[in-house]
Amino acid sequence: MSGNQKPARRDAAATQRRILDAALSEFATQGHGGARVDRIAEAAGVSKPMIYSYFGDKEELYKAALKESYVQIRQGERAIDTDHMSPEDAIRELVTFTMHHFISKPWFTSMLNTENLRKGVTVQEIDDLNDIQSPLISQLGEILDRGVAEGRFRPGVDPTELYITIASLCFFPVSNKYTLRVVFNVPIDDAWLKRRAEDAGRMVLCFLRPEPDAGSG
Amino acid sequence: MSGNQKPARRDAAATQRRILDAALSEFATQGHGGARVDRIAEAAGVSKPMIYSYFGDKEELYKAALKESYVQIRQGERAIDTDHMSPEDAIRELVTFTMHHFISKPWFTSMLNTENLRKGVTVQEIDDLNDIQSPLISQLGEILDRGVAEGRFRPGVDPTELYITIASLCFFPVSNKYTLRVVFNVPIDDAWLKRRAEDAGRMVLCFLRPEPDAGSG
Amino acid sequence: MSGNQKPARRDAAATQRRILDAALSEFATQGHGGARVDRIAEAAGVSKPMIYSYFGDKEELYKAALKESYVQIRQGERAIDTDHMSPEDAIRELVTFTMHHFISKPWFTSMLNTENLRKGVTVQEIDDLNDIQSPLISQLGEILDRGVAEGRFRPGVDPTELYITIASLCFFPVSNKYTLRVVFNVPIDDAWLKRRAEDAGRMVLCFLRPEPDAGSG
Amino acid sequence: MSGNQKPARRDAAATQRRILDAALSEFATQGHGGARVDRIAEAAGVSKPMIYSYFGDKEELYKAALKESYVQIRQGERAIDTDHMSPEDAIRELVTFTMHHFISKPWFTSMLNTENLRKGVTVQEIDDLNDIQSPLISQLGEILDRGVAEGRFRPGVDPTELYITIASLCFFPVSNKYTLRVVFNVPIDDAWLKRRAEDAGRMVLCFLRPEPDAGSG
DNA sequence: TATGAATGAGTCTTCATTCAT
DNA sequence: TATGAATGAAGACTCATTCAT
């Protein structure tokens, strides 16, 4: 009845959150150079001075948004419980999950692109990023170890490299869907990407499989 | 009477080229929002009005640069002659070549990123892009057909999808090397990427191999 | 029931003082246009609303600081007891004192400069300023009278003008020391200024001395 | 007939001059912190980007204005020909001139005040300032030498110090006229300042005169 | 053809000031 | 009394674009 109720005011933490969310969205959709502080302020429902008071300047805000994108990614990644799965299923699950991740959180791939366009100037200044991703790598390492122990995977595969492989296969079609559509006339939609994830899983497993010749030799 | 005609006649084409090269470099390194017309003019060694007179406005210049990046890419791709290779070698060669391509022409991946950040607004307006890439796809198709005929590859693989797979494996570590370095502490250099290309080739071939079970069934 | 009353009662006066001191320092070092309310609040150890509640706005605070600078100056000036000195010694003492005054209270010359840059807009609105300086003028008047009576000074010298002369000789090298150093390569330090004060005293006394010709005529 | 004719456009040198004049006026009347680039642009009849294009930023513009104030001062000072005057008349002339100088070019005293409020941060970065003032000092030196040779002045007076003395006596009442008016109720106008200059001349000459005792001893 | 000169419309950032508790 | 939270208005500076020659 009382009409549009403004989001809670006079709540520093909440305000900072709103700014951060708005910033992440703006930087992800517009890039670093194209992002506008005005738009962030408006989207967050605050005045511009708030942004400067809480985050310093545009660059610092960008840094916070970049870090936030990693933090949010991590929160999603922790959710998968692969312990009770077979090594193959675990890998398939991780590939599916990664693809879904990139699709459902488009600001993440965008932030990666934006930051790499800038040659990683900012990412270098963020601490703890290593920590943020390490649980995922550990999880992969465990799956690999298990697979090797069970004779399903060949040994000597580095979990980080494996992750980069999985990410590669999922990242490219999601991140570049707009140009791919035009250049190759491919209707990149969720169904297409789902098939892609399946193929990717197959490819990764094929790559992990022990050499058949070795066994028969 | 016709006054000083120091500047060579027919400079028009050369001037346009210099502008285009400078624009490609600027857009690729700075992104669409971060690119500066001033810098392009200076790098091209022309005055700003020249740019406007030749290209209209910044957006049109960007479009020309984007198209140019595809044109230059195509010129490189035409060079590989895979006809005399075995299907496997041909695939390996294409993977190696693609990786080398992305590494040696960083403006291409950058332009892809930039344009996809913009949701492909501009790429849609460029005609002929399909033509530009189609020779590559045809080439891949021929290799696939040959491999299937020789019983080395399984049938039913779409050449476009195969290209996307190859591109995926090469694109991600090149395009995201700055963030990868920081986040995973991986020293992504040419040697690392070369190993990557080898793994990628192995993976793709593994994916193309006919089902062993099918043969034994 | 009355809750936590940690902050001492009757802090009001002390708080106002701290604000005033901080303001004086800020306005003197930064000028009117360069002064920042934030800095004053921080230096005073209070929140900004306190300043506004006590002083109204920045302009009023500036007015208070300007007046305060005159008040503090007066307090210093009252301290000199010249009654028991010879008229010459009294003048010398006043010159020395004035120079020392300007040196040791740099905010005073700064406030004068600041206010005169503003064409005295604010000083006009302060009452009682005349009273503040009058004791000094009276004192000078007495010294002059005594000197004339004793035949050491010529008559007809206006004490206000004499004060302006003394102030002139002391003010310029102190107030403009930074530019003088650079423009004339003069190492203006305390020793240099002390010599200056001695010369100034000599000059003033020379100016006050009865015309030798007149006596001999 | 053709109405208000705008000042010459498309003339870089003239535009720079207009900006510099406007800047000098603005900085002198508003101080460094109070000066507004907008106002300078408007007063100069140009758009703001012109200012930035020609002078870099506000600080550089301030530097140019400060230097300009010294340059203009020097141009005035070169005009006095004291060679044909008696040493006493030459000194009197210089004092009169200096006073007139400060009165008729109020931006000079204002710039001195402004810059000294800033502790000379900028003046240090200007080269050649020494050169600018040195002709005046040389001139004073010659007058002193001549006076000493003619037995009218005592030896050992440093020309720079003498200039500082003259400047002191003229600067203070001009620069601080607004506060002096209020604090001492003195009607500081041109007539008053003229009398001041005469007194100042008398004082300086008295200071330069050889010790009578020395002569009689 | 070519360009130095010029600018309207932003874009980031700051500051005096007020609100809500 | 006291202050953390908040902002309208303005300030310095930039940028794509056009004008005049």
What attributes does this structure have?
mainly alpha; homotetramer; DNA-binding; 217 residues; Tetracycline Repressor, domain 2; elongated; disordered N terminus
Protein architecture, described:
- The structure is a homotetramer of 217-residue chains.
- Chain A has 217 residues and is mainly α.
- Chain A has a domain at 70-210: Tetracycline Repressor, domain 2 (Orthogonal Bundle).
- Chain A has helices at residues 12-34, 37-44, 48-55, 58-77, 87-104, 106-117, 129-149, 159-175, 177-184, 190-208, 212-216.
- In chain A, helix 5 (87-104) runs antiparallel to helix 10, helix 7 packs across helix 8 (159-175) and helix 8 packs antiparallel against helix 10 (190-208).
- Chain A is elongated.
- The interface between A and B is large, with 59 and 59 residues.
What's the layout of helices and strands?
4 copies of one chain form a homotetramer.
Chain A: H1 12-34, H2 37-44, H3 48-55, H4 58-77, H5 87-104, H6 106-117, H7 129-149, H8 159-175, H9 177-184, H10 190-208, H11 212-216
Helix pairs in contact in A: 1-2, 1-4, 1-6, 4-6, 4-7, 5-6, 5-7, 5-8, 5-10, 7-8, 8-10
Chain D binds a DNA duplex (21 and 21 nucleotides) through residues 9-12, 15, 36-38, 46-53, 57-58.
In a nutshell, what does this entry contain?
Chain A is mainly alpha-helical.
Most extensive chain-chain interface: A-B, 59 and 59 residues
SSE sequence of chain A, one letter per element: HHHHHHHHHHH
Q: Give the helix level of chain A as a range of percent.
A: over 70%
CATH superfamily of the domain at 70-210 in chain A: Tetracycline Repressor, domain 2
Mean pLDDT of chain A: 91
Shape of chain A: elongated
Oligomer: homotetramer
Radius of gyration of chain A: 21 Å
Q: Could you name the CATH class of the domain at 70-210 in chain A?
A: Mainly Alpha
**Total beta strand runs of chain A:** 0
Architecture per CATH nomenclature, i.e. the level-2 architecture of the domain at 70-210 in chain A = Orthogonal Bundle
CATH fold name of the domain at 70-210 in chain A, please?
Tetracycline Repressor, domain 2
The major sheet of chain A is characterized as: none
Helical stretch tally of chain A: 11
Structural class of chain A: mainly alpha
Distance between the termini of chain A: 79 Å
Q: pLDDT below 50 for ≥5 consecutive residues: which ranges of chain A?
A: 1-6
User: How large is the share of residues in beta strands of chain A?
Assistant: under 5%
Keywords (chains A, B, C, D): DNA-binding, Transcription, Transcription regulation
DNA-binding region (chains A, B, C, D): 36-55
Protein name (chains A, B, C, D): TetR family transcriptional regulator
Domain HTH tetR-type (chains A, B, C, D): 13-73
